[in-house]
Every structure is written in structure tokens, then in C-alpha cells.
Amino acid sequence: MYESDSTGLSSAELAAAFNIVYADYAVPFTMTEAAARRHVAAHAIAPDRSILWRDDAGEVVGLAALGVRGERGWVGGFGLAPAWRGRGLSGVLLGQLLDRAREAGLRRVQLEVITTNARAIRTYERAGFGRARELLILASDEAAPAEAGANDVREGDPATLLVAPPIAVPTPAWQREPASLAADPDLRGLVLGDPASPRAFVVYSATAIAVQIGALAGVSADALAALTRALASRLPGRSLRLANEPEESLVPTALLAASWRETLRQYEMICAL
After folding, report:
1. Residue 130 burial by CB count (10 A; 0-12/13-18/19+): exposed, middle or buried?
2. Lower CB count within 10 Å: N or C terminus of the chain?
3. How confident is the model at residue 82, as a pLDDT?
4. Would residue 205 count as lying in a domain?
5. 18-34 as b/e, with b when 16 or more CB fall inside 10 Å?
């Protein structure tokens, strides 16, 4: 087995490595070549700081991807191929990744882990990570009726809403930071009420079957419910999803009361270097 970085990997090779180390993951996971390109670009993955382990035959053993923004780092992919699990290698791989983070001058590294993944949590805690907060993944598949107050909902400029949010929001998770979201060329925005001082706003992207919410905030639960209903009514037949919303935010309370459901919960963990 030897260590290398992912500098020379093509998007196809990187996607294949992700799919190998995430085989049998608690949540089914498949990365395409296009998704690998987006992941690297949107989340500031640094190939020269990331680690790919291969065995003597050149087969993938482990992967640890590191995102870098200023003095902060993010573990944007971590795992071992199934045949190599249970040998105590996760701690070694994580230790090497943290060494690279220190060499890069980072002050801290963060990650997310499913709250029921006890083995991974133990590995992270042994390396010095501590649980900072809980993040919720929320979804709604219900068709929304035409929103009566839809005339109070207007298009909003997503760039402006992300850079200067008109409503205070908790510190977002790495994948929902403005720098991550801005990499999506298809972002759109909606505001409820006066655009200069809205009661709620949302930044999102949509496909033919799903809507992914990137930023969402409101002054009240009622305002959040009204805006998300308006969003659903504008995009009929599509599921809505919001990933990694801080538990302390008003958003989970508002959406769960509006018939959304919690599909997963994660810990955000931080290691000071």
C-alpha cells in the first residue's frame, strides 16, 4: 500500500474512488464524473492536500479529501474500501490528513458525520474532533396548493441574498456557505414581502424532479412556511430538500410544523490544530 495525493486524478478516477470508499455506506451514495468536478470546484477541495491510498496493484484503498478556505479546512470525503476496513487504518489516514492540514497553515478542520455512525465518531474523537452542533436534513414530497399570498412573493437576486442576507442566519455548514453555493450557475432566489426588508427569503436550484434549497431564513415560522409553500407551488411535482440546517435555527421548527420530515441528522465536528 502506498500514499499519493489526488493531483493527477481525472474526474472519472476521483468519482470511482469516492464510490469505492463509500460502498455500503449508511446512505446510498453514487458520485458521477460531473458530480466529482462540481464537488472539487464548489467545495474548494485541494488535490495537493488530499490523500489517495492505493495497494500494490493500484487499487483504491482509502481516500481523504480536504477542502481549504483560508485557515479553515473541511473533510470533503473520507473512507476505506470495504476490504480494508476493520484494520485500524482509518485513524492513520485521518492523522495523515490532519498533518497535511497543519502543513498548509490551517487553524481548524471541520466535518459532518451521521449521528448513528458510532464507529466513525469514535475515530474522529480520537483524532481530536469535538461535536460542535447538530445539522438536520429535511425534505418535503407533498404537492403544494397554489399559494394564496403568492403575489407577495417576488424573484430575488441570489448573489445579493447570499452575500448580504437581509435576515440573520446561523453560520452555515461548509456545503452551504456562499462560496459553495455561488458555484452553481442555476441558482435562483425568492423573497416574501418587501425585497428591501423581506419577511423570508430562499436561494435554491431546481431540476425536473427536485428542488435543492441552499439558503433559507425568515422572521417567523409563518413566513418560512408561506415562502416554502409558494416555492413548491411554483415548481409542482418536485420534492424539496434542505441539507445540513443547524438545529438551533428557526427553520427546522417551521418546516417540521408545515409537514416536512427529518430524513437524517449529522454532527458537525471540529478539530483545532
Report:
1. exposed
2. N
3. 96
4. yes
5. bbbbbeeeeeeeebeee
